[in-house]
Amino acid sequence: MMTDRFPAMRKAGCLVLLVLCFGGATAARAEDCNTDIARLNQRRQGVINQLNQLAKGNKKQLDPIASCPKLRNLVTVEHELVAYLSKNKEWCSVPDEALENIKTMSAKSVTVANQACAVAAQVKKAQSQQAAGGGALNVPQQKLPTGPL
């Protein structure tokens, strides 16, 4: 489920870059904007590639414990991208639709990261309980005597 959206995220990032490259800004402005946006998008794409690598080895599903920090990193990078695009919307000639798409994508990333990290916390808690002697489910039941006392 989580890996299905990463190719779409890559396309959305490329769409933003293309729109900004050909958005009609002057050459100097476009170059500054494109350089900054390309740097942010490259960082974002690097995190997505790391997540895709994690998913390859685990039956196309992400391990919540391993993916939680990477998803948090993705959220951070996407927030930086949204902040940059919002701050420089006029200067970089960012279309409203492109900015809204990035904001929507970032919100979905936050949701996925929160879900993965919540599951990771539950798994870690269960592992620590099991290592500490287990909960009530792992304790063998004492047999009661049968027959007359």
UniProtKB/TrEMBL annotation:
Extent of Polar residues compositional bias: 139-149
Keyword presence, Signal: yes
Keywords: Signal
Signal peptide: 1-27
Region of interest called Disordered, as start-end residue ranges on this chain: 130-149
Source taxon at top rank: Bacteria
Entry protein name: Uncharacterized protein
